């Protein structure tokens, strides 16, 4: 059986999508609804909150990075054994890259592909009837999608709500609930977004409070009745293949960013994921075939990582015989050194000829399309990779030449960004996070 869905979206970022999504998920789960989460676009942090709210993994759906077979396979995972899929958008509803229709990475592509109605979150602070004009524009901008209704966020007073609702009534768009302005609803943030779910104090209490507010302020019956569309059957499509039979994956507060669809694909193919904690000074288990260092926040733990002698020594010993790959934060740890925000330089594993710094912060953000320059753990030379970058750290060593680079990279529009990442023996790494790969 396939599950219907809803997309929680907004006209712009910082409208309250995550707050509304978590409130709705937790409230429906408390009702006994088998609700499952999804996130449109590249994001590691929000799906972890979805998992906390529902008790089940949340999967990323990306119309730019994922070809149709992979996209449907991941959507099938999201809908498996579900009564309802609640997908959270990113940025604005129609925000994406310039690409072929349905391949822009925008939330609207996902809603259109699976027939999921949109619940539009309107931040009405600083507006009243004019909010209806924004909603009306969203309703007519893309004929592929349908706005089921709006949820008002940051409502200042009962009078404010009446004025906003008057405008929406005029244009015929139903209001399915409202949340009052409340600074206590804001989840703590750091430089890459929300503080991670595993680090958020009193997360269960926060989620239950959000559910209480949803039950008081949202028309849950109407929202459930608005769900429509479908998800593909589970087990179809093509999930990512594992890089080995036993995969040692760094997993702790410094290494957290591993996409759930990779884990699911690796396990579906029979691979075993073996977690270890560098912050606890654990080395990658020697009986694994490959070691994977995901992204995360090593810049916040650089001193502890540099002092973790068992981890560093074990990683070097592992790399002498077997493949090791690092993404973003993992790449930084594989390098020679990492300079933290205070300007202190910490020695790292020195397995790749790169030094990185978090002191002089610069935002690096966007999709990346790469071609591998040589055979390795990510695939054969020439394999096309699609991923993204989102970090503030920079390389302080010079750019690699093609003899030592991992891949040649462009942005989403094909602008050549040159060689990127590094490879040395069986050790590879780059700042971009892998979403999907296609053989040459």
TrEMBL record:
Pathway: Cofactor biosynthesis; adenosylcobalamin biosynthesis; cob(II)yrinate a,c-diamide from precorrin-2 (aerobic route): step 9/10. SUPFAM superfamilies: Class I glutamine amidotransferase-like, P-loop containing nucleoside triphosphate hydrolases. Belongs to the CobB/CbiA family. Belongs to the CobB/CobQ family. CobQ subfamily. PROSITE patterns: GATASE_COBBQ (PS51274). PANTHER family: COBYRINATE A,C-DIAMIDE SYNTHASE (PTHR43873). It holds the Pfam family CbiA. Residues 7-191 form the CobQ/CobB/MinD/ParA nucleotide binding domain. InterPro entries: CbiA/CobB_synth (IPR004484), Class_I_gatase-like (IPR029062), CobQ/CobB/MinD/ParA_Nub-bd_dom (IPR002586), GATase_3 (IPR011698), P-loop_NTPase (IPR027417). Its EC number is 6.3.5.9. It comes from Methylobacterium trifolii. Keywords: ATP-binding, Cobalamin biosynthesis, Glutamine amidotransferase, Ligase, Magnesium, Nucleotide-binding. The keyword Iron-sulfur does not apply. The active site is at residue 328. Residues 246-438 form the CobB/CobQ-like glutamine amidotransferase domain. Its cofactor is Mg(2+). The a and c carboxylates of hydrogenobyrinate are activated for nucleophilic attack via formation of a phosphorylated intermediate by ATP. CobB catalyzes first the amidation of the c-carboxylate, and then that of the a-carboxylate. Comprises of two domains. The C-terminal domain contains the binding site for glutamine and catalyzes the hydrolysis of this substrate to glutamate and ammonia. The N-terminal domain is anticipated to bind ATP and hydrogenobyrinate and catalyzes the ultimate synthesis of the diamide product. The ammonia produced via the glutaminase domain is probably translocated to the adjacent domain via a molecular tunnel, where it reacts with an activated intermediate. Catalyzes the ATP-dependent amidation of the two carboxylate groups at positions a and c of hydrogenobyrinate, using either L-glutamine or ammonia as the nitrogen source. Transmembrane segments: none annotated. This is Hydrogenobyrinate a,c-diamide synthase. It catalyses: hydrogenobyrinate + 2 L-glutamine + 2 ATP + 2 H2O = hydrogenobyrinate a,c-diamide + 2 L-glutamate + 2 ADP + 2 phosphate + 2 H(+).
